[in-house]
Design goal:
The complex is a heterodimer. By secondary structure, chain A is mainly α. Helices cover 66% and strands 0% of the residues of chain A. The chains are: A mainly alpha, B alpha+beta.
Chain lengths: 360, 218
């Protein structure tokens, strides 16, 4: 027999099984597409204001002086989305259109491999090898940047694509090595266990600062944020791989870079800054899923804000300087970070702390 | 007291020391400016730079002092100034020529003001004035005797840039009462035009009556 379905149950069902359905929620809503868009707008605004403060200017201001020109970014977004998309005759049209979309989707994909709570009902996938999976999924999207460059059929695009491949090869190696050093320290690939082990307040970023530093620098470089935008440096090669893109397609390209940086930041918040650490996820989808995901997002936002602040301080490296730093300094440092991780595992730094955290 | 000159000698460090100290120094400086910004952007329509009295701005003719010698028209490097027969007073025959100016051509070099033997021309200390079309830039003798309206001073506040020893260039509010009758480069054979000139920033309404007033006192 079928009972009457109350509106409360319908609402609860929609919330629980559609909005808070973990693959959808993490991919689209909180650390995913919508949150990434909001974060990108905020971060671009913050980047411009912070760089302006350091450089004795005001940044965006005149459009709404009370909010410090915050609506400027919305106006820019609207302008981008309604610009005409000009497709040159010489491009390989299918890949030209498919590559940015694939890049955006594949940059978001690692979010589905990350846990945002301890409750197994809110894990998108089983979490046993989630760190390895997340790191592996992160390395997928740069291939589409190279595809964009090749399909654009333009000298600047090809140069930019080659630069992208150089940078990504050098720095994603560093990022992967330094993020995997946590696996060496805690002898697990399970991100939930990693976060739980840090819930005592001793974050992995404090125990192994070398790994945090190398992961930070590698993220800056490999996502080509502002001062380190070697693949698409405006003053050298027009816009690198994105030279032939206009309007919304260019917005997608830029968005893909920001989303990639955001995803890296979320993973770094989980690994190095203890994820939802001071908070213990409770029952239900508000206390057990929404709140921890917001905490992780705020931590990732702080990392991104620091990254974008560095725009005001540093200059751009030449491609050979960047590759030299990557291969000659950062790879040995990342290996040393893994060594520190092994040493911590040898001296059981995390063994009993993890047990304590799991027991509590 | 003049600042002491110090020669900073960088202590000898290894490559690691240089990398660390360089990066940390840059970051500390960036954070310092982020927390305590020293911004000196001129918010132009809301603020404007208070210029000194010697500034070569727009040029105004004092009709009663002009003897019609034509030196200004002859020295003008861009031929912006011309001498015209313009009888202005009734019942008076056109005996002499008077200068008129075309701001399409003027480069504000100030030669005409310098060469005028009776100091019948003077500068006003502002230059940001907008005309609607190019015909308006060719002034008649009547318009040439009025100080042009300084619209920026109505809505903006005056500021001044000074050099601070610690902070570098800083923007400060210019003091409200402008300097009185003392004026260095301004043409003040008679004291009458100079205060008018200084007050021109504040009161725009009486600018029409000014030339005759100045003429009366001279």
């Amino acid at each position: 027999m079928v009972d009457m379905v109350t509106p409360y149950e319908i609402g609860h069902g929609i919330l629980r099984y559609i909005i808070f359905y973990p693959p959808v929620y993490q991919f689209v809503i909180i650390p995913g597409l919508i949150a990434a868009l909001v974060v990108a707008i905020f971060i671009i605004w913050f980047e411009r204001k912070a760089a302006a403060r350091v450089q004795m200017r005001y940044g965006p201001y005149e459009i709404s002086p009370r909010t410090g020109g915050a609506t400027q970014l919305i106006a820019d977004l609207i302008r981008y989305s309604f610009q005409e998309i000009i497709v040159p005759r010489t491009v390989d049209a299918v890949i030209y259109f498919a590559a940015p979309v694939a890049a955006v989707i594949l940059s978001l994909l690692p979010l589905d491999a990350m846990p945002l709570t301890t409750n197994p009902a809110f894990w998108p996938i089983p979490m046993d090898y989630s760190l390895l999976l997340a790191v592996a999924l992160m390395t997928l999207s740069p291939i589409f940047v190279m595809a964009m460059a090749w399909a654009s059929n333009n000298k600047f695009s090809v140069i930019g694509g080659v630069r992208e491949s150089f940078i990504v090869t050098a720095y994603e190696l560093v990022a992967v090595l330094s993020m995997l050093s946590v696996a060496a320290a805690m002898s697990t690939y399970n991100l939930v266990d990693i976060v739980q082990a840090q819930s005592s307040g001793l974050w992995f970023g404090l125990l192994d600062p070398l790994a945090f530093l190398t992961a930070f620098i590698a993220t800056l470089m490999t996502t080509s944020g502002f001062p380190f935008e070697i693949p698409d440096s405006e003053s050298e090669i027009v816009a690198g791989p994105y030279t032939e893109y206009t309007g919304l397609m260019y917005g997608l390209d830029m968005g893909a870079a920001y989303i990639k940086r955001w995803v890296f930041s979320v993973l770094m918040a989980l690994i190095f800054l203890g994820g939802w650490a001071p908070y213990v996820p409770g029952p239900g989808f508000v206390l057990g899923y929404l709140v921890p995901s917001l905490i992780v997002s705020v931590k990732a936002l702080v990392i991104m804000a620091i990254m974008s602040f560095l725009r005001a301080v540093y200059g751009r490296y030449r491609i050979d300087q960047a590759l030299g730093i990557g291969w000659e300094i950062l790879v040995p440092l990342a290996l040393a970070a893994i060594g520190i991780g092994f040493a911590e595992a040898y001296f059981h730094v995390y063994a009993y702390m993890g047990v304590m955290a799991l027991a509590s | 007291m003049p600042a002491k000159i110090e020669v900073k000698e960088s202590p000898k460090r290894g490559i690691l020391g240089r990398i660390i100290s360089g990066n940390v120094g840059a970051l500390v400086l960036g954070v310092k400016y982020f927390l305590d910004p020293n911004r000196f952007t001129l918010m132009y329509p809301h603020e404007y730079i208070k210029l000194n009295t010697g500034y070569r701005g727009f040029i105004v003719l004092i009709y009663d002092k002009c003897i019609g010698c034509g030196s200004c028209a002859r020295i003008c490097p861009t031929r912006a100034m011309r001498m015209l027969f313009l009888p202005q007073k009734e019942g008076e025959r056109a005996k002499k020529k008077y200068p008129v100016i075309n701001y399409n051509r003027c480069i504000f070099c100030g030669y005409c003001v310098d060469i005028c033997p009776t100091e019948a021309l003077y500068h006003v200390p502002y230059h940001d004035i907008v005309y609607y079309n190019m015909n308006d830039l060719i002034l008649t003798l009547d318009e040439f005797q009025k100080e042009p309206e300084y619209a920026t001073a109505k809505e903006g506040i005056p500021v001044r840039y000074i050099f601070d020893e610690r902070r570098g260039l800083v923007k400060v509010k210019a003091q409200e009462p402008p300097q009185g009758p003392e004026s260095g480069a301004a043409p003040t054979a008679s004291p009458a035009p100079a205060p008018q000139q200084a007050q021109a920033a504040q009161k725009q309404g009486e600018s029409t009556s000014k030339p005759s007033e100045g003429g009366g006192s001279a």
